[in-house]
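Q: What residues go here?
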């Protein structure tokens, strides 16, 4: 897990310690509000709601009660009691809403603890909410409780191996149900997706893979063997939005997440987002947000 590039490991560990969250260094952190009177008591939540965060590792979030709304990359997702949200490494996420009575448990982890998440492709990125049978969901949350107890023990030399075993069981149950859900909701093989719908899906997937390096509609149109005008018309008809909006939205979303990390200068963020120079990045950022990168960083 390349956590150093996107999040200071010391900051992750310090935040976990401040929240009293059981953790193994910066590699695995458990956070929940199961003992809180209100979901508002979990003070790590508001920073996610206000600002996007780039995920270096993965997260599995169990909703015990209430509902939660997240934005992950280009998609908004709401999930409720008995459902699980899987956030893949490299995703940009932001909490957009939490009911007052929401109870949740979250495991954020390096892929060393469950490496299957590293190989999941576009399908799960577009459908990260997993519905689970009551028995499987209960088993996962009970394991979370046992993992919480083990990691809370001082000087537990076996904590890492125990965590890997528990994470394998949790991950296997979650992914088993995701595959079942994906199979149940997929169209029959003899019912092909319409060409506009297929083009729209391919465009979204491609943009999410390449928005850092390619920011022109023409590039994606060429890759999809259509004209920019035709692609723009199809995207507009399918989504009600301009094709360029999706590209710009992801660029700004990740830029905000990187600017939130004080270790990186504006020049470094510009380089990481593959802009030709900091001035070009600043103009682009101001055009789409009304603020310079420095002003955004100061005001956040």
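A:
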């Amino acid at each position: 897990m390349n956590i150093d590039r996107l999040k200071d490991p010391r900051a992750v560990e310090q935040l976990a310690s401040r929240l009293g969250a059981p953790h193994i260094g910066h590699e695995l952190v458990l956070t929940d509000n199961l003992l809180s009177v209100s979901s508002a008591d979990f003070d790590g939540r508001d920073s996610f709601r206000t600002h996007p965060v780039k995920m270096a590792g993965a997260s599995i979030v169990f909703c015990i009660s209430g509902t939660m709304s997240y934005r992950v990359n280009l998609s908004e997702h709401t999930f409720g009691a008995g459902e699980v949200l899987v956030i893949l490494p490299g995703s940009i996420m932001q909490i957009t809403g939490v009911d007052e009575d929401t109870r949740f448990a979250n495991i954020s982890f390096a892929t060393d603890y469950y490496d299957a998440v590293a190989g999941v492709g576009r399908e799960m990125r577009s459908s990260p909410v997993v519905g689970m049978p009551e028995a499987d969901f209960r088993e996962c949350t009970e394991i979370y409780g046992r993992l919480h107890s083990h990691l809370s023990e001082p000087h537990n030399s076996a904590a890492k191996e125990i965590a890997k075993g528990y994470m394998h069981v949790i991950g296997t149950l979650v992914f088993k149900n995701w595959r079942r859900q994906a199979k149940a909701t997929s169209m029959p093989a003899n019912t092909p997706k319409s060409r506009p719908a297929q083009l729209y899906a391919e465009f979204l997937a491609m943009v999410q893979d390449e928005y850092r390096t390619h920011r022109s509609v023409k590039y994606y149109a060429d890759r999809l063997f259509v004209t920019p005008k035709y692609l723009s018309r199809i995207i507009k008809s399918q989504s009600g939005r301009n094709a360029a909006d999706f590209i710009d939205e992801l660029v700004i979303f990740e830029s905000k997440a990187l600017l939130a990390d004080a270790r990186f200068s504006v020049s470094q963020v510009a380089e990481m987002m593959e802009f030709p120079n900091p001035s070009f990045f600043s103009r682009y950022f101001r055009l789409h947000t009304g603020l310079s990168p420095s002003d955004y960083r100061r005001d956040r």
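A: Context that may help when evaluating the design: Residues 259 and 297 are 6 Å apart (CA to CA). The radius of gyration is 20 Å.
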